[in-house]
Amino acid sequence: MSTSPRPYRLLRNLNAKIASVPMILTALVIFVGGTAWTVFYSFTDSKLLPRLRFVGLDQYERLWSTGRWLTSIENLLIYGVLTLIFSLVIGFLLAVLLDQKIRFEDTFRTIFLYPFALSFIVTGLVWQWILNPEFGVQNVVRSLGFTEFVFDPLYDPDIVIYGVLIAGLWQGTGLIMCLMLAGLRGIDEDIWKAARIDGIPTWKTYIFIIIPMMRPVFVTTLVIIMSGIVKVYDLVVAQTGGGPGNASEVPAKYVYDFMFAAQNLGQGFAASTMMLLSVVIIVVPWAYLEFGGKRRG
Amino acid sequence: MNSVKLALGLLASVALPSVACATDLEVTHWWTSGGEAAAVAELAKAFDATGNKWVDGAIAGSGDTARPIMVSRITGGDPMAATQFNHGRQAQELVEAGLMRDFTELAAKEGWADIVNPPSLLANCTLDGKIYCVPVNIHSWQWLWLSNKAFADAGVPVPTNWDEFVAAAPALEAKGITPLAMGQQAWQNAGAFNVLMVAVGGRDLFMKVYGDKDEAVAGGAELGPVFKAIDDARKMAANSKVQDWNQATNMVITGQAGGQIMGDWAQGEFQIAGQVAGTDYTCLPGLGMNEIISTGGDAFYFPVLSDPEASAAQEVLASTMMAQATQVAFNLKKGSLPVRGDIDLSTANDCMQKGLEILAAGNVIQGSDELISPDTTTQINDLMSEFFNDPAITVEDAQARFADIIATAE
Questions:
Q1: Which CATH number fits domain A61-291: 1.10.3720.10, 1.10.540.10, 3.30.1360.60, 2.60.120.280?
Q2: Residue A264 at interface with chain B, using a CB cutoff of 8 Å
Q3: Closest Cβ–Cβ partner in B97, B374, B389 for A244
């Protein structure tokens, strides 16, 4: 430990500071360092092993002229926007319904949250079977007498991403519901009483009073949903394997496939740098608006 | 206290197996279908007979799933004792980085150079004059497997070449039989394409495209008939919704499908199902058009280990794999051809005999794995997988994109 004279402030809470050194180092070396390393090597033509032979922006040019990457981006946009909307809306509605002091609330909460206990791999496999035309929904409806009924999203390149979306929502909405429910329970009873005395209808109370008061909960939820969207990978691998064809590819899978299966690290690094960039473009201005400017206690 | 005991117990259960015996060798591979598992058991039996122990590290999925796991274990400093790769360029960089053992001495002692046939197999294991892998079998992609039952049901004779097969497709479809079984994994789509290129286009065309990487040929009229054939294949396989290759083979075995384009490893599945070549199924090397087979295959690579005992055992394993008895037992189960030219395979069935004859006549071609990098292979896989699953992609589009890939191939 250094005993040389230092400004007094640096030595305050010395134990706490020493204790946090490992975490700071981890964050700097592993996260920041790893990120910088990846971006740096995305300008090389590294194949199976990283090597320093620079090719400028070649990897990026190839990336953006690859049909599979473009499909991946499009799929991520569709999946992302719809997941955001539906999981917030459904999650909030379920939470509101559960908040009506109904009977067996615990039971319902458990049922809705249960899918979240399953991994994306299991979710993907389960929904692969449910959406399989020969064993799943289509077969059940047909056996009820509707013999012309067709529902096989996983085998139709145009709509396969919606099949993945259904599985994703099934898995994730329960958690969103719980977060929302916690937020609703955090609202003071007196607010409700006041609103009732003023004769404000329930739905208006929710939209104009409760939701604005739940802002911190919504922010947390948004972060959780968005990080889930960007990293979606295992669900697709288990449910469709990216197929049929390339119709349900996602960026994370492109990165993995090129880094490891295709033994082209440079291309994989370029793709992951683009993923990072998109996250930065969305998150940084938002985080600045949300957390910057004012200090919180 | 209990939790400490539990933790110790769990730790022991993880740690103990790995220290049990110094000459346990972990061997990783992706042979998991019925026929493949039976074949790998022969290798394990032969190695166990030397007093060592084969620890099986099968990785399910396919080579595309298994190879990244193997590579990351080797580069991550946790190497297995031996691992399967398709020889050619998949492990090239690992060898260049000095992560693989050099078997030049053993090869010289046992005279591999004289017994391995065709010599290209050993050449593919060689880098700068040193031998880094042990080829164990020759696998050729260029086979069409036909279900005699399916054609009997449809009332048409069993085709003798690809064109007849295409012509017979409507009759099969009329009986509700899928003409062409095709698993939906990308490597299978691309594999069929490469097979058709050799069968329809011939050896020279294949070498111009993959060997010389001639963009003009890849985009030119010479390749037109090949793309027409792959378009036919797409239509014939439209109702095939299985994933794995052995599920597709099973469609042929049960007569639900007319045929399948698949390498000779499919043979093992027919064998396990008790089917007889010629009576229950028919095989057409080179799809009955150009009787040429590729001589790619599987090889074992041995990562450099620090433990001297394990290193010694690695040599025993390498030598066991190359031994005559092992080669016969393994390849009969696997349905592949042996790498040695000096063994008697009279017990092999009709299809393998055909393969041996073609091999003896020297009608061989290098496999695409040896000619193009995994990167290019992935791009072609992607293209073909898209082509097979999206009827909206025209033959012209597909060829133009193929030519682009060849233009940038290394």
A1: 1.10.3720.10
A2: yes
A3: B389
